[in-house]
Amino acid sequence: MIRVAVIGGGVAGITAAKELASKKFQVTLFEAKSTLGGKTCTFQSAIPLDLGPNWIHGDDPKHNPIVNLISSEVQFHDFNSDKETLFDRNGETIDDPHLKGVMWEVLDAAIKYSYKNTATIDSSLSLMDFAKTKYTDQVILDCVTTFGNYPGIDVHDQSLKYLFLEDCCPGKTLFVKGAYNKLINVLTASLPQSVKIITNTKVESITSNETSALISFNNVSEHFDAVVCALPLGSLKSNLIHISPALPKHITQFFSQIGIGNLEKLYITFSSKFWQSELYQFPDSFASSLSAVDVIAISDDPPILLVYYSGNLAKKLQHDLGPIRTPDWDPNLAENDWHIVLRYFHKHFEAIGYLPNSHKIESIVATRWLCDPLAGYGAYPNFPTTLKDIGPLEDLKKGLPGQRLWFAGDYTGSLIAMSTVTGAYLGGQNAAARIRDYFLPIDIANS
Ligand SMILES: Cc1cc2nc3c(=O)[nH]c(=O)nc-3n(C[C@H](O)[C@H](O)[C@H](O)COP(=O)(O)OP(=O)(O)OC[C@H]3O[C@@H](n4cnc5c(N)ncnc54)[C@H](O)[C@@H]3O)c2cc1C
User: Fold this and answer.
1) pLDDT by residue (tens digit) across 233-278?
2) How does residue 446 score in pLDDT terms, banded at 50, 70 and 90?
3) Were both Cys, which of 30, 68, 375, 406 would link to 399 (CB 3.0–4.6 Å)?
């Protein structure tokens, strides 16, 4: 049988393993952490708290396969934009409905412009440059900064040329209520029994040629006929796995230009509820906070706020929280560290009704993706103004058959679902289909 090593047990790796095993390849799936799922993981607290994805970016099942995979397992929640409270930089709420929707208006126009003119747009232009061609009012430009938390990059650094890569599948964007890791349960339950799963095992190197591949872990080496590298793009960018022969220069150049979003989440449980809205958005200029901040009321009982933050704020806060224990970090923040979180967010909480003497903090759950090498030091790929050419994305999708090496991840699926769970799923399918085609002339079961 043809032996394939799949390295990385996130959505992309599990999907590639499943598709290959169901076509009679003999698959070994290596995962460095103690459990499968990668960034799609849920922390069990009083209620389940998703540490990675929470959203379905486009609920049309014809385009987004994730919808059918989990719709029977979770409820979807459609946030009512009427219940959204937007703040200006001075902490005043913005009630003008036009201003509330202006970020989406600018984004839609900019994405359309990017699709149409990508070939001629200067790569140094940003989303904010585009916004400034439409508006001069500072309040509006501040509203535009709230987009930063979507790609995990400041809108001044977000490429206009490649903004179309931030487009989503058709349909509504919905919040998954329950737990996104149910998707991992569904995917792992569908893995054929023949798949050998090896957890707690970090693969250190891949050495391959046109006929075989050798992978090394824990001072052991094992031969395979093919390898699927399902590590995050950030891991490849940071050379966290040794690949020999070295990847082509245009691909390593692409790695140096691509961005890795530093989006982080906090779940703060309070002794009592003090908020009125479901969703609050703060521009990056609010209280010198360095990044846009989104606050979502995910539960009234127990009272829990979910905070999204990114950019330089994420870098500073993560630095202040100190190093993490890998591979499996504990997201439950020690009480001694709660003041660090409050240092950056008390003004946001106060703006929505928080009174320190009345609303005690009971727990803080904090993601640490930016510090986690196994996550590729960040959340997911984004497209900064430093990016000159996305041609290598297509080459990564094709893989390197001459090196018996294929790639799977949220960057090898479809251009419309980049950097999402859907993209990772499609990326896993893409790698499996290409390996199948490569080995097709060989009778797989009898080889
Ligand atoms: C905070 C946050 C919010 C997000 N929100 C959304 C959202 O709302 N909607 C959405 O669709 N997407 C969202 N995403 C993105 C989504 O989670 C990812 O795009 C997707 O999970 C990536 O899957 P993957 O399989 O490509 O990579 P990963 O999930 O990163 O899996 C890679 C796996 O490889 C393992 N690994 C790494 N190095 C090694 C090694 N050397 N040897 C063996 N194993 C190794 C890792 O431990 C990991 O399990 C979010 C991500 C984050 C972090």
Assistant:
1) 999 999 999 999 999 999 999 999 999 999 999 999 999 999 999 9
2) low
3) 406
Q: What's the rounded Cα separation, in Å, for the pair 315 and 262? A: 8
Cβ atoms of 215 and 7 within 8 Å: the answer is yes
Nearest-atom index, ligand 1, CA of 202:
42
Confidence of residue 444 (pLDDT cuts 50, 70, 90): low
Average pLDDT estimate for 7-30: 98
Average predicted confidence (pLDDT) for the chain: 95
Nearest C-alpha to atom 12 of ligand 1 is from which residue?
420
Q: In the prediction, which pLDDT does 443 show?
A: 57
CATH of domain 3-38+180-259+381-439: 3.50.50.60
**Strands (E) located in 31-123:** 42-44, 48-50, 55-57, 75-77, 84-87, 93-94
Q: Which atom of ligand 1 is nearest to the CA of 408?
A: 26
Class of domain 79-171+262-379: alpha beta
Using an 8 Å Cβ cutoff, are 158 and 384 in contact?
yes
Q: Are 422 and 170 in contact (CB under 8 A)?
A: no
- Tell me, in angstroms, the distance from the centre of ligand 1 to residue 272's CA: 33
Question: Which helix (H) or strand (E) element contains residue 358?
Answer: none
Domain ranges of the chain: 3-38+180-259+381-439, 79-171+262-379
- Read off the tokens for 138: 């500072």
335 token code pair: 């009480």
Contact call for residues 412 and 12 (beta carbons, < 8 A): yes
Distance from Cα 173 to the centre of ligand 1, integer Å: 19
Q: What is the pTM of this model?
A: 0.97
